[in-house]
Write a structure and sequence with these properties.
disordered C terminus, mainly alpha, elongated, single chain
Amino acid sequence: HEATDKKASVSDVAKNPQVWVLVVQYACCFGMELHVNNTIALYYFDRFGLTLTTAGLIASLFGLMNLFARAWGGMLSDWAYYRWGMPGRKYSHVALMCGEGIMLVIFSRMPSLGAAIFMMIIFSLFVQSAEGSTFGIVPYVDPKNTGGICGFVGAGGNIGAVAWGFLFLGVGNFADGYMILGFIVFAVGLLGIPTIWVEDTSHRKGSVASMAGSLDNSLAGKNMDNSIEGKSSAVELKGV
């Protein structure tokens, strides 16, 4: 285990490459959420000729998924961890990020309003879930600096929103901008495979089954010791 006398340090956080890997990952999920929140109503207004009121109402469905989808991502990360350890957290996050990118590309190509709304909701589920899976990894990067790392990674979302806004300035229309962003997100998700290499720093490693087996063995050994002690005490009393 890590030495407990080493203090938390912002410089340690800033020098940790894994922190910046997760900053980029979060820029492509939470940053994407912020950017879409800022632009999606205008997209519906421009692409399908809706009134701003109707477009805004439809756009609110994107944020509505936040009520549960982010928790889904965290729960999926937990389930994968209990099945496969840290690789489970890593690859569940990669899958969600790649799915987010694919759904965004498909959404940008939808020709009808109904299809666009449906794909926007599916895309939103992946976006919010990827946010949850990102923070399923964060606590393992450097436990003594978890608070600082949360701050850095969280700021990545705002950085991403600004970056995607500038990217849209150079694109002719919203649909093509979303498609380009979808390819970027997919690429960043795939890059998580070689770049995310966080180790399991918790005390509970391995699958639930193996941990349960270890616990059962430990309890069985303890009960046997208690039984032996009880018998020894009984022998001593008889001797008395």
